[in-house]
Structure formats: C-alpha cells, structure tokens
Amino acid sequence: MALREILTTPHPALRTKARAVRHFDQQLQQLIDDMIETMRAAPGVGLAAPQVGVGRRVIVVEYSEESDLPEGQEEGAAESPPKPPKLYVVINPEITRHSRGTELGNEGCLSIPGYYGEVERYEWAVVKGLNRRGQPFRLKARGWLASIFQHEIDHLNGVLFIDRATQVWRAEEGEAMEAMAGD
Ligand code: NI
Fold first, then answer.
1. Distance 26 CA to ligand 1 centre (A)
2. CATH code, 58
3. Whether the model pTM is above 0.90
4. Is there a domain that residue 71 lies in?
5. How does the average pLDDT of the chain come out, rounded?
6. Within a domain: residue 141?
7. Residue 120 domain-assigned?
8. Is the separation of the CB atoms in 62 and 37 below 8 Å?
9. Ligand 1 geometric centre to CA of 24 (Å)
10. Does the active-site annotation cover 178?
11. 5, 65, 79, 152: the active-site residue
12. Which domain, by its residues, includes 25?
C-alpha cells in the first residue's frame, strides 16, 4: 500500500466526471488499498478516486458511530463502548432511492482544505454498487453517513460541496481541529 497525493482545488481532475469501473484487476485492488490508507492518514471519513487523480467511479468511506453521538450525549459518557469504525468500499455507486426530506449539516473536504460549509442533503439514501470483487450490494445510509455517501458520489460527477453549500466559511486557526473531519 502507498499513500497517494490528495489533489486540491482548482485541480481539473476534481471537475471531471469519472468513468465506470469495468475490470476488477490488480490495479483496481491497489487503488482501493491506497485510497483507504490515504483516507486514514489524512485523516478523513471518505475519499473518491478523482481526489487522487484517478478518473474512475470508486469511493471509500470509513464511519465511526462515536462521531455521531445522539443529541445531548457527552463524549465519553456513553454507557456502551463506541463501535469500531465501519469501512465501505463502493465501486460504481448509485443512489437508487432517497428520502423526500433533507437536512442541513456541516461539511469539509480534503480537496478544499481550511473551508467548511453548510450543505443540504437527503436524510437517508439507498446506495447500490459493487464491492471490490465486483459483487453487487446495496446499503441504506442515514444521517451523517448518508451525507458522506452523497458527498463522495458528487465527487465522481465533478461536483464539490462548495457548489451545493448554502454558506461557506474559512476555519479559523485552531478551529480546524474541532470542526468535522474533512472528507
Ligand atoms: Ni470531498
């Protein structure tokens, strides 16, 4: 595995529609492993192949439930131990169904360092795709996980969160650590 360079705006690769994966070969496996390592090192909660300069429809998402504590629950006060983060690798992802309702949330992006924005996303979405062996599956994501999937799938279409944000702000020095981890 190897770390790959994360491209930042205004790199044109971030604005190019990615092409579907057709071959589940060694090159793809290497790309997926590198994307996982790069996402974790950043650190981020998601990464799309165009962010590392590969114009293919591949996303990785790693989501930890402890990042999304219920309203009013203090960090560390949880009675049950935090669940380990769950890793998702989705090839050729598509949203096949989604909620009517939307909600606003704060997002960042590893390709737009230092900026955050308030973005409206579907409350839940069903994502259909292929796993790294090319087998079809689908999952239903809610809340923040649903937002992450919508954000990453946008990357495959050359869309960035700043295109959808109702407002964008620059993180103050020191504030970046507290803000939501970029994806
Ligand atoms: Ni992003």
1. 25
2. 3.90.45.10
3. no
4. no
5. 90
6. yes
7. yes
8. no
9. 24
10. no
11. 152
12. 12-63+81-170
